[in-house]
Specification:
The protein has 391 residues and is α/β, with parallel strands linked by helices. The chain has eleven helices and 14 strands. It has a single domain, classed as Peroxisomal Thiolase, Chain A, domain 1.
Amino acid sequence: MADSRIYIRGKAVNCALGNDVQTVTDSMKAGRIQVADVPLSLIDVGYSRPYFRLPRNDSEHLHNSRVYYYNVLFNTIEEAIADAGLKPHEIRELPVFFGSTSNDIPIYEDAYQTSRHVLSQTASGYGNIANEIAGHFDLKAGCYTFTTACTSSANGIIFAAGMIAQGFIKRALVVGYDLFSNLGFYGFEALKLISPTPCKPFDKNREGIIMGEGCGAIILDSKSKASNDFYYLGGANICDTYSVTTHNPEGGLIAAAIHEALASAGMGPGQIDVVKAHGTGSYQNDLTEGKGMNQAFENQVPPLTCLKPFIGHTVGACGVIEMILFTEAVKSGFVPPTPGFKDVDDEINIEPLTQPLSIQTGTFLLNYFGFGGNCVSLVVSNKPDPMADRL
């Protein structure tokens, strides 16, 4: 992978900050955060939890009908394809790499709540959505679905880039998409992982995650569209089998994923300008990621930021969505700080940015670490000529 360039040629996003790239970037720059309170009405506990919703009309609330679900998905993909400037034959040849934690569970839940009949929908599972995308856009190539918890669409990026680099495909559509689902929302609340206060990753007073919904789509291509397009240099995927829910708290396999990603990119730790951490804000995840990064960078972690305080934890969609948010912020001349961070946790010894960092080009590490132990790290750059910097 070290000698290949795979560009992010097109992109589109719909998240709590807005439904177009420029609005989202401007919101991060201004430090605007839009978070809603969602009552736990299904279990009648009399309290609510914060949640990062997509921009919706008040009448839509958290209604996830099949029509709404696919409108968000298809509109986002259509914008990414338009942004890439693909020709009709290039569109038809696009393979689909779809990453999600919930897949079409939100549609299934809505259908059940509407009809109160468990058989109101006959199928819910892997492959449905990627096939719907292919059918809607008349795509004739392969469809691939990734459901590896929080690393789902990040894994989609790795596999799509690998297939381009090896010459199996010319370009790829990679999508990350998760809508609100009761299964996810109430499940995380049952685990006592949802913070009642603003998310503050790596802060010693952090109280947990805040979930969010969103859709992101990118076109990966061996050809660039603009001179400042970001390109993928390498990545790694490692599974930590320490437990069925989390990683080894010592962070060894997180460090291994970072090292492997850097080796895949032909880079050394000292050549990374900024890290985009996974940074969920939960006690265990931040502790483990912090220890892993300190090992990988020998206690000299580069400037670091976390994006989930802006948009929530979009679970399987965060790979693509946070890739778009981070790279577009850099193209606009800044790395956003981490909202909410105040006090260093001595057990972790990680201090995210609290002020914007001025930067327009560089080489960056993006981390994603999933529930269940999957570890993904990606290396991207927009330097005009990184080859001279390689080891």
